[in-house]
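Appendix B. Chain record.
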Amino acid sequence: MTKLKNLHFILIAIILLSFLTYSFAAMSDGENVQKVHSDATVGCTVCHPQGNFKDLNEYGKVYKDQGRSVEAVKAIDASDSDGDGVTNADEIKAGTNPGDAASK
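Structure tokens predicted for this chain:
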């Protein structure tokens, strides 16, 4: 019985630590965008589809490919990741989503 309780405790701890690690990674990514665009409001949907924080939108994929850093944000600012005719930087500054072509 004690072994089973210990196993449950270990599993819960692993799940919680995994969640915290994922959350901290996402927070640092948002901070990277915020460091480049200090006047912008940055949320999870800059890199993720609305309501789906496991997948990446087009901006998130390019940001990840560039190395997930402040330098990555700067490197892709002049690009148009979602192909809607507006640069990533202009969308972030305007509060629209650089990874969603319907948002410009």
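Further analysis of this model is presented in Appendix C.
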